Amino acid sequence: MGGPPSEGARGWHVIIWVRGLQVVGLGKPVLTFPGEGPQFTPRFCELQGHLLGRSLIVCEGPHRVAEALVQVLQDGGELAAIAQNGRRRLGSPGAAKRIARSINALLLTEVREVLWYMDVPWCKLGSTKCRGAWTCIGAIIDL
């Protein structure tokens, strides 16, 4: 399972579905097939196809994955359409970092208000200690 999906990979078969979303976001095709268990059923594949569009290639079974991969890799137009589809459906890279920064800013505001109401001496507007403490608090939770 290792690290994150490689941007250099040309196609993926995924077992862990969150990984599949990451791969689609990279603009790569995801090849999969329904399983025999209760979770990854033909209906689930169909619903994921509605969510992910042409980025998801559902094969009849494991014996068809290689054939489908070769077919899609030989079609430059389809690969370009899959790349565009991934960007359109999942957005540009960096969303998690932007969300975390927004949460960070809100959290720092809340921490300052709590310290203010607790009447912490160095947390008064204009205090030089407060500024230094904020830098310290910000560094602790900074991303």
From TrEMBL:
Keywords: Signal. Residues 1-27 form the signal peptide. It comes from the Eukaryota. PANTHER family: LIPID-A-DISACCHARIDE SYNTHASE, SLL0192 PROTEIN. This is Uncharacterized protein. It comes from Cymbomonas tetramitiformis.
